[in-house]
Design goal:
By secondary structure, the chain is mainly β. It is built from two helices and 15 strands. The strands form four sheets. It has a six-stranded antiparallel beta sheet, with no helix packed on it. Strands 2-1-5-8 form a four-stranded antiparallel beta sheet, with no helix packed on it.
Length: 163
């Protein structure tokens, strides 16, 4: 997978490793390292994701929402990134996706290798163990899937009542 970024020398390419995770809430997991560019332009996307950034012994965790337009962000040099892209219809009940549209938020640290999410401390996963992290998110109800969205995506009839 490739994403393009802007630089003073023209267009650069990020190289992403990507893997699937057997989960009803996750589309895929990716990783990359920063390239020698000043900023990154992301295209508008319908999904949301959690991104783990590691740089010089520090880690930041961001939840990025769906984007209705391209956005530009600075690229920290020497950083490694791991991202979990969630499926359409997946959401965190305590943090509705509509609060994340065209923005993101940084999750607070809970220690040198952990962060706060939904009232609990979570260990920062690596690309190699992110499947365990994803299973825990789903099993604890931190990330759930809307059954109506799933039915629509599968072209199944949906019985809805008016509210």
């Amino acid at each position: 997978m490739h994403r393009k970024g802007d630089s003073a020398r023209g267009v650069q390419i990020f190289n992403f490793d990507r893997t699937g995770v057997r989960s009803p809430v996750v589309d895929h997991v990716w990783r990359t390292s920063s390239e020698p560019i000043e900023r990154f332009t992301s295209v508008a996307v319908t999904h949301w994701e959690i991104v783990f950034t590691r740089l010089e012994g520090e880690t930041w965790v961001h939840v990025r929402g769906p984007e209705t337009r391209a956005t530009t962000s600075p690229v920290p040099q020497g950083a490694d990134f791991v991202g979990v892209q969630f499926r359409l219809g997946a959401f965190m009940p305590h943090l509705p996706v509509d609060r994340l549209v065209d923005t993101g938020l940084r999750l607070p640290e809970a220690g040198s290798r952990s962060f706060q999410l939904a009232g609990s401390a979570w260990e920062v996963p690596t690309f190699d163990n992110v499947d365990v992290f994803v299973r825990r998110l789903a099993s604890r109800g931190v990330v759930v899937r809307d059954p109506v969205v799933e039915a629509v995506l599968q072209h199944e009839p949906v019985a809805l009542s008016s509210r």
